TrEMBL record:
<dbReference type="InterPro" id="IPR017871">
    <property type="entry name" value="ABC_transporter-like_CS"/>
</dbReference>
<dbReference type="InterPro" id="IPR044726">
    <property type="entry name" value="ABCC_6TM_D2"/>
</dbReference>
<feature type="domain" description="ABC transmembrane type-1">
    <location>
        <begin position="97"/>
        <end position="368"/>
    </location>
</feature>
<dbReference type="Pfam" id="PF00005">
    <property type="entry name" value="ABC_tran"/>
</dbReference>
<dbReference type="InterPro" id="IPR003593">
    <property type="entry name" value="AAA+_ATPase"/>
</dbReference>
<keyword id="KW-0325">Glycoprotein</keyword>
<feature type="transmembrane region" description="Helical">
    <location>
        <begin position="920"/>
        <end position="945"/>
    </location>
</feature>
<keyword id="KW-0472">Membrane</keyword>
<dbReference type="InterPro" id="IPR011527">
    <property type="entry name" value="ABC1_TM_dom"/>
</dbReference>
<dbReference type="InterPro" id="IPR027417">
    <property type="entry name" value="P-loop_NTPase"/>
</dbReference>
<feature type="transmembrane region" description="Helical">
    <location>
        <begin position="957"/>
        <end position="978"/>
    </location>
</feature>
<keyword id="KW-0812">Transmembrane</keyword>
<feature type="transmembrane region" description="Helical">
    <location>
        <begin position="841"/>
        <end position="859"/>
    </location>
</feature>
<dbReference type="GO" id="GO:0016887">
    <property type="term" value="F:ATP hydrolysis activity"/>
</dbReference>
<dbReference type="Pfam" id="PF00664">
    <property type="entry name" value="ABC_membrane"/>
</dbReference>
<feature type="domain" description="ABC transmembrane type-1">
    <location>
        <begin position="700"/>
        <end position="979"/>
    </location>
</feature>
<feature type="transmembrane region" description="Helical">
    <location>
        <begin position="199"/>
        <end position="216"/>
    </location>
</feature>
Length: 1250
């Protein structure tokens, strides 16, 4: 406006000053506008201006900020620009050749309809050449485009997977977000790669619709505009429903993530679940999660049904609407209302436009769903990552009051400080209570510092603060700039060999390695292993014993030569001889750590390590540092502090190391790969039969009938149009009502049939199979024998609950409906083409045979490739779970880069079968396109040579060839997709049939059994596997009702095996075990376990509320639960966390508190037989005494069997059973046996082996 005013003033007035003033004013406004548009931070020198986006963003940036574009999509695009742009040119060529088809149809009908002349032969040859050029061109440019799209999909898949894995290594709180990465690595990445694959098809479909409408308008005139409303409505509704589908898909993915999170916890705690007889309750819990997930998936499925039905609306209603309007308004004086040339050219265009509309809706939905998954991934990648909260000790101000007691020996210890803690408070949750409160101390460099305190005092939390894994809520932590070694309370063992677990990412030094093995007493264990230090440890160390895991982790710390070593009560689980050996080799004056320039911090609740310490820090139960100093300073106060802070242990350690033969894990067993799908990999109709049996034969017949109704509704109007276009003008006018009725009536029938078929499949069949497949996998997993979990990687099992179920939930129904619809359509089109062109029928038969052979060859390859693709994801998931479990250890040792390289290696291996499978599909599509091109060439050649075909018949044949090409590609694509996705069904079938169940009987014991608790072993031989020697041989033992028996013995003597035989976790090779005169081998194992009170060594933690946790074990009285928690001292912690609604997690309780929680639930359960396997190994002695007395008071008349090594515990029992090499060597009153020098029990105690 200012420019216009300036121009007017300049021309109207003699003086130019007003005009110049207006021009200056306008220029000023332009400058103000430009500066307002600029981003202020680019012009500012101070970064404070960038804190508030309202201050720094321009008027353009503000709305852009509100739109919140997906930055990850931009990053991926610019990272792989060539791969994204490469498909554009071949896709444009494909689009151009596709629109040449309707013109070829018109030219062919014109050629046949006109009389033959001298130039007809040349024109006929040209027509044949044009058909060859167009159809063979379509085949080649289509394959070129698809291969380019496959390349883009492959690189995006690798990029996203690597980003997710890399982010997982940087997570700040793995317990909150770790398991979501497994869902994103599988389900979300699959959806994103599908969206990328359809990206260019989507924009090409919109272009195709626009061009098609323009060409239709050239033939039908204004009648084409009527169809524009239907097309516009379809596209708008498709976009709307695609957006809704994306939102519902996010909710569905969240439900899948929640189910998988609990599934991972169940797989980790499967041994404890079986011991406690909780498998039925766990099964119900996970199936409820699955039902909730299925319920949420229905909303997504409804949007999918709407989109599929909408996409096919154009196929049935566009021709009806367009041709009907044309017939109503056309000029009746032209001889015919609609000629064959125009009819089938327009029908071909309608077919292309309809197909494009279908592609628009389906591809847009795939892209929207992919964007939804991409947003989930981006949110995950944008989560707060771990940053080291510690400071360098060189930067910390270390002040020493030289005026007071300066120069004393105690103060000289602190002149060189390795760790400095100043006013530190720490808590695991933002709204939780501080566990460590205002701690201040210095850790002297070079030597052993012991942090001691009772169970639950916060020792582990304090070590995590020093490690940097947990940021303090207040205060500062300063450490020396040095490498840190960390041994967690639960040892982290990777699924690699023993040697690789110890050496890790460091260079290998033979001498250092041997010294570490000897110091941790591992050299003898390795000699006993068949494959030595190359023995695979398995996921979470499943193929090594608990004590071996402790020593491997400790050897790793020694080998690392770290200058700061953090040990979180990691000597628990070792027998006294082994513990003494390690203490002497490590902490003695000439020990490996004592003699090296290494600072070691050991957190423990036992005072027996205090004499080894150079410095001691005592923490009370409230998390406060109450005393610190050297051992000489602390020693005079130890007696006073025994009951206030420390807990004096007896002569024995808190737990003894069980060998592999004394545990329920199989020793020396290599972890096997996923070997399922042996029968399905070769392909057989039994898989189809089994699947149809799962969905129900009657439901399949109903679905098939509805699909047939849809095909008839599509094909019959085309046949009628061919006949109607050949009629005279008067006959066409007379039959217009029939024309309208057939096109609209039959088209509506096809639409209703399609909608009904989709509802029947997606909301009935797919929902039922989703629940059933999960039930089969879950039941088989929970019923499997324990050796299955020792021999099978957890990543393989988790892959069944994620990848296989994802395929059967979504990919399988889509492939099933696509294959059925296209097969029926293909049969109908072949019949039409054969009737209209008889010789083409022979060509169809001959070429179909060739394609059949090729297709069979392809299927044999693609099935195996799909299986390899599924199984290649298992190592990726296994490595992901492994690194998440040991994230603190990986960071401490600086192994993140090494694990990233391992992740790249397994990801690259997983990419190979995926890319080969996609490339094989491109090759198959090329062969199909060549088949269609050859068929079109045969039909047009016959028509040109014979010249005895009517225009309507040829038009119908050529039109159906265009549709036939699409149908053949659809049949082949969806059939092969069905065959491939049925690989997941075959894996489920083979898994359920081949996995041996531990349940040999389903007989339930009497309701009140066991009523006495009398146990009898009669000549019993026990083994973990038929391939291993017996652990216990020919054992005969009678245990009277109400007895309190402690079981002890040397390492590997069979103590745990004896107890677990009552739970059915080991194999009884011979003999009989009876309880209350009932042979337990004749009873259902879950029923037997549920009748016992079991306290396992490893406590189970599930992400459920305390109330729901108790319900898993049949305890529902809330007041009873609260009273039990008060007895064990846990109620105050739980009440502060939300009471019975508090969610249990690894952050909620320490290791000792988990055992207290398990003890609480056990004491609330009634039973005549109580089995305990080192149930208090992580609690201090006062709590052990309290819990032992609680058990005796709660179960005064029950039979109690307890595996233990603590003399203070053993002497409280009525009977002690001493085992050696799987045989009973002594039993009797422990107090009396201790006073007998010749007693085996007394000898074990004196030798320090208890």
């Amino acid at each position: 406006m200012d420019a216009a005013r300036a121009r007017t003033l300049w021309r109207m007035l003699d003086g130019r000053d007003p005009a110049i003033a207006v021009m200056v004013l306008g220029a000023t406004k332009v400058c103000a506008l430009v500066t307002e548009m600029l981003w202020k931070c680019s012009l500012a020198n101070r970064h404070e201006l960038c804190d508030a986006p309202e201050e720094s963003n321009g008027i353009i940036e503000r709305p852009k900020r509100k739109q919140a574009p997906i930055k990850l999509a931009k990053e991926i695009f610019f990272s792989h620009t060539y791969e994204f742009l490469a498909p554009i040119f071949p896709r444009l060529c494909y689009l151009s050749l596709t629109f040449a088809q309707p013109f070829l149809v018109r030219r062919a009908i014109d050629y046949i309809s006109k009389p033959k002349t001298e130039g007809s032969g040349e024109r006929g040859d040209g027509l044949i050449a044009a058909y060859a050029l167009v159809y063979y061109g379509i085949a080649f440019v289509s394959s070129l485009y698809e291969q380019s799209a496959v390349r883009a999909t492959t690189v995006v898949r690798a990029d996203l997977s690597m980003r997710i894995y890399q982010q997982s290594l940087l997570l700040d709180r793995v317990v909150d977000t770790g398991d979501s990465s497994t869902t994103m690595m599988t389900a979300d990445v699959e959806r994103v790669q599908l969206g990328v694959r359809k990206l260019h098809d989507a924009w090409a479909s919109f272009v195709s619709v626009a061009i098609g409408l323009w060409l239709i308008e050239a033939q039908l005139g204004l009648a084409a505009l009527v169809t524009l409303g239907l097309i516009g409505g379809s596209l708008l509704l498709g976009g709307y429903w695609s957006g809704r589908a994306s939102r519902f898909q996010k909710n569905w993915m969240a439900a899948i993530e929640k189910r998988l999170h609990k599934t991972v916890q169940v797989l980790k705690g499967i041994k404890s679940i079986k011991q406690m007889g909780a498998a039925p309750a766990i099964k119900t819990m996970l199936e409820d999660e699955r039902q909730s997930e299925i319920k949420l998936s229905k909303r997504f499925r409804l949007q999918l049904i709407a989109l599929v039905t909408l996409s096919f609306t154009s196929l049935t209603m566009l021709p009806a609407l367009g041709l009907s309007v044309h017939n109503a308004v056309s000029d009746k004086s032209s001889g015919r209302i609609l000629t064959a040339q125009t009819a089938f050219q327009v029908m071909t265009l309608f077919n292309i436009v309809s197909s494009s509309i279908q592609d628009c809706t389906s591809h847009v939905m795939a892209i929207m769903v992919g964007l939804g998954s991409l947003q989930r991934i981006e949110s995950f990648l944008n989560q707060h990552t771990w940053t080291d909260p510690r400071k360098s000790i060189r930067d910390a101000s270390i002040s020493t009051d030289e005026s007071s007691v300066g120069g004393t020996s105690e103060k000289k210890v602190l002149t060189d400080v390795a760790v400095k803690i100043q006013n530190v408070s720490a808590k695991w949750t933002e709204d939780g209570e501080a566990i460590i409160k205002d701690a201040t101390f210095d850790v002297p460099a070079h030597g052993l510092t012991v942090i001691a305190g009772p169970t639950g005092s916060g020792k582990s939390t304090l070590l995590r603060v020093v490690l940097g894994d947990l940021a303090p809520s207040s205060g500062t932590v300063s450490i020396d700039d040095s490498q840190v070694a960390f041994c967690d309370q639960t040892p982290w063992i990777a699924n690699i060999s023993i040697k690789e677990n110890i050496v890790g990412a460091l260079p290998f030094y033979e001498e250092r390695y041997r010294m570490a093995l000897h110091a941790c007493a591992l050299d003898q264990d390795i000699e006993d292993l068949t494959d030595g230090d190359k023995h695979l440890c398995g996921l979470n160390g499943q193929s090594v014993s608990g004590g071996q895991k402790v020593r491997i982790a400790l050897a790793r710390a020694i080998y690392s030569k770290a200058t700061l070593v953090l040990l979180d009560d990691c000597l628990v689980g070792l027998d006294t001889n082994t513990e003494r050996h390690i203490l002497g080799e490590i902490f003695a004056p000439r020990g490996l750590l004592s003699s090296a320039p290494t600072t070691t911090i050991l957190a423990t609740s036992s005072p027996r390590y205090l004499p080894f310490a150079n410095y001691i820090i005592l923490i009370d139960a409230d998390g406060r540092v109450v005393r610190q100093g050297t051992y000489a300073e602390i020693a005079p106060h130890i007696e006073q502090l025994e009951h206030d802070v420390l807990q004096v242990s007896d002569h024995a350690s808190t737990a003894r190391e069980p060998r592999a033969q004394d545990s329920d894990e199989l020793p020396n067993t290599a972890i096997t790969n996923d070997i399922a799908f042996k029968k399905g990999a070769n392909g057989d109709w039994a898989v189809y039969k089994w699947y149809f049996g799962v969905i129900g034969w009657m439901d399949f017949v109903v679905f098939l009938f509805l699909c047939l109704g849809f095909v008839i509704g599509v094909i019959f109007p085309q046949i009628y149009l061919g006949l109607w276009s050949e009629k005279s003008l008067q006959n066409q006018i007379n039959t217009l009502p029939s024309f309208y009725g057939i096109f609209f009536g039959v088209g509506s029938m096809a639409w209703v049939a399609l909608f009904s078929a989709c509802v029947w499949l997606f909301l009935r069949i797919a929902v039922r199979t989703a629940a059933l497949f999960h039930h089969l996998i879950l039941t088989t997993t929970l019923n499997a024998k324990m050796d299955f979990f020792s021999q099978t990687d957890s990543g393989v099992t988790l892959n069944r609950f994620s990848q296989d179920l994802q395929i059967t939930d979504m990919e399988l129904p889509l492939a099933f409906v696509g294959a059925t619809m296209n097969l029926l359509m293909l049969i109908a089109q072949c019949i039409v083409v054969t009737i209209q062109s008889h010789y083409a029928g022979f060509a169809i038969l001959a070429i179909a045979v060739v394609i059949g052979f090729f297709h069979e060859f392809y299927l044999r390859t693609s099935r195996r490739l799909r299986v390899l693709d599924i199984e290649a994801r298992s190592p990726v998931l296994s490595l992901l779970l492994e690194s998440l479990d040991g994230l603190a250890t990986v960071r401490a040792y600086g192994w993140a880069a090494w694990y990233l390289r391992r992740g790249i290696e397994v990801l690259e291996r997983s990419q190979v079968p995926f890319h080969f499978l996609q490339s094989a599909q491109v090759t198959l599509n090329l062969s199909v396109d060549l088949f269609v091109a050859t068929l079109a060439l045969v039909v047009i050649s016959i028509a040109v040579v014979q010249m005895n075909t009517s225009g309507g018949s040829l038009g119908l044949a050529l039109f159906n060839i265009v549709g036939l090409g699409q149908s053949v590609k659809g049949v082949v694509f969806f059939w092969t997709s069905l065959e491939i996705t049925l690989g997941a069904v075959a894996r489920i079938r083979d898994f359920t049939e081949d996995t041996k169940s531990e349940h040999e009987s389903d007989t339930k014991p009497p309701v009140e059994w066991p009523s006495r608790g009398e146990i009898h072993f009669s000549d019993v031989t026990l083994t973990h596997s038929t391939s291993l020697p017996p652990t216990i041989s020919n054992l005969t033992l009678d245990i009277k009702p109400g007895s309190k028996m402690a079981i002890c013995g040397r390492t590997g003597s069979g103590k745990s095996t004896l107890v677990n035989s009552l739970l059915g976790l080991v194999q009884v090779s011979s003999g009989i075990i009876t309880i209350d005169d009932v042979d337990i081998s004749t009873l259902a194992k879950d029923e037997v376990r549920s009748r016992f009170v079991v306290l396992p060594q490893e406590s189970l933690i599930l992400s459920v509320s305390i109330r729901d946790y108790a319900k898993l074990f049949g305890i529902s009285d809330e007041q009873e639960i609260i009273q039990g928690l008060k007895k064990t001292g846990l109620w105050q912690t739980i009440e502060q966390g939300g009471g019975l609604d508090m969610i249990a997690s690894s952050d909620t309780f320490s290791h000792g508190e988990r055992q207290l929680f398990a003890m609480t639930l056990a004491c609330l359960k009634k039973g005549k037989l109580v089995l305990m396997d080192e149930p208090t190994s992580h609690v201090d002695n006062d709590i052990q005494t309290q819990l032992r007395q609680t058990v005796f008071d709660t179960f005064p008349d029950s039979t109690v069997l307890c595996v233990t090594h603590q003399v203070a515990t053993i002497v409280e029992f009525d009977i002690v059973l001493v085992l050696d090499d799987g045989k009973i060597v002594e039993q009797g009153d422990p107090k009396e046996l201790l006073h007998q020098p010749t007693s085996r029990f007394a000898q074990l105690y004196s030798a320090g082996e208890l």
